[in-house]
Design goal:
Blueprint: H1 2-10, H2 13-36, H3 43-56, H4 65-71, H5 74-85, H6 90-116, H7 119-131, H8 133-138, H9 145-164, H10 169-177
């Protein structure tokens, strides 16, 4: 039964283009991920990672602690802290907090465009997001840009596709939470 659903779904050219778009997005991001994944961190990235390291390793709070913890959103540092507690490396942190949300954001842009207008608009907007240089650039920096965009798109998707279109209150609650 599932094979028949998949065959029926794949008969549509727009669905084939969606698969092609996602493969294209994954290939581009994986290429740059392995090309620049182990480069030195930027100052801002180092702030998030240093805060996480102090928490994860129970280190004494350094002199700069009050300045940087007051000026940085702590959610990103907390997420990095969780990965550091699991003894993962920086590359794994980048993969789960940046690369995956970046790929999922392209799909969410497609899904919002599809639900607001139609599949063609969704494919065009998803393609534009997949090649947008700013989005690709920040996919490899441990900063809040990619996770914030992902959560924002997820919020828009829940609001429009679940609350407005399907009239389910859970969409509104999830949207507000995100």
């Amino acid at each position: 039964m599932n094979k028949e659903r998949i065959k029926t779904w794949l008969k549509s050219n727009e669905n084939k283009l969606l698969i092609l778009l996602l493969v294209f997005t994954i290939v581009i991001r994986l290429y740059y991920f392995f090309k620049v994944g182990n480069q030195p961190v930027w100052w801002d990235e180092a702030d998030y990672l240093a805060i996480s390291k102090v928490w994860a390793l129970n280190m004494p709070q350094p002199e700069w602690w009050q300045h940087f913890t007051g000026s940085r959103p702590l959610l990103m540092s907390f997420i990095c802290y969780l990965f550091m507690k699991l003894r993962t490396g920086e590359l794994i942190i980048r993969f789960f907090t940046l690369l995956l949300p970046s790929i999922l954001t392209v799909y969410l842009v497609y899904a919002v465009g599809r639900d607001l207008y139609n599949k063609k608009i969704g494919l065009i907007s998803g393609f534009l997001m997949s090649v947008y240089w700013v989005h690709i650039f920040y996919t490899y920096r441990v900063l809040t840009d990619i996770p914030a965009l992902f959560l924002g798109m997820l919020s828009i998707y829940f609001f429009w596709s679940i609350y407005i279109k399907k009239n389910k209150n859970i969409g509104l609650y999830l949207s507000v939470f995100l």
